[in-house]
Amino acid sequence: MTVIRLLGIRDSALSVDEVYSAVGDHAAGGTTIFVGTVRDQDHGKPVTRLSYSAHPSAEDELRRVAEKVATDFPVTALAAVHRVGDLELGDIAVIVAVACPHRAEAFAASRRLIDDLKSEVPIWKNQLFTDGSAEWVGACE
């Protein structure tokens, strides 16, 4: 069985339960889950909502990032899903989960997974502010 259990770029709501179920593994002593949500401000400026767009290669890049994490850490199971489309305050934008034999490894692998996803997977965020202005952000948040 592969350690990469679930990957996806989706235009529908994300489920923490689905991601957690995907990484369940009896060999894991530590499982970490990171859930990124739409917040009501960025750099002190009030946000009303946002929209994510993805390049057609985004899923391939997500797989590449996940494979690198699975190679660099003793991962027993890994999952990552990111939402695209219009999101409201409080909506889940991204979920990553990693299971490893020990908690320190799970924390480190999870941190690398979300950081590399944000910096390397071509997903862009358009933030809409209460003053009517908008801002494109080059990597997912």
Automatic annotation (TrEMBL):
GO biological process per UniProt: Mo-molybdopterin cofactor biosynthetic process
Listed pathway(s): Cofactor biosynthesis; molybdopterin biosynthesis
Catalytic activity of the protein: 2 [molybdopterin-synthase sulfur-carrier protein]-C-terminal-Gly-aminoethanethioate + cyclic pyranopterin phosphate + H2O = molybdopterin + 2 [molybdopterin-synthase sulfur-carrier protein]-C-terminal Gly-Gly + 2 H(+)
Enzyme class: transferase
InterPro entries named among the record's database cross-references: MoaE_sf (IPR036563), Mopterin_biosynth_MoaE (IPR003448)
EC number: 2.8.1.12
Subunit and partners: Heterotetramer of 2 MoaD subunits and 2 MoaE subunits. Also stable as homodimer. The enzyme changes between these two forms during catalysis.
Summary of the function given for this chain in its UniProt record: Converts molybdopterin precursor Z into molybdopterin. This requires the incorporation of two sulfur atoms into precursor Z to generate a dithiolene group. The sulfur is provided by MoaD.
PANTHER family (UniProt xref): MOLYBDOPTERIN SYNTHASE RELATED
Family as reported in the entry's similarity comment: Belongs to the MoaE family.
Protein name as annotated: Molybdopterin synthase catalytic subunit 1
Species of provenance: Streptosporangium roseum (strain ATCC 12428 / DSM 43021 / JCM 3005 / KCTC 9067 / NCIMB 10171 / NRRL 2505 / NI 9100)
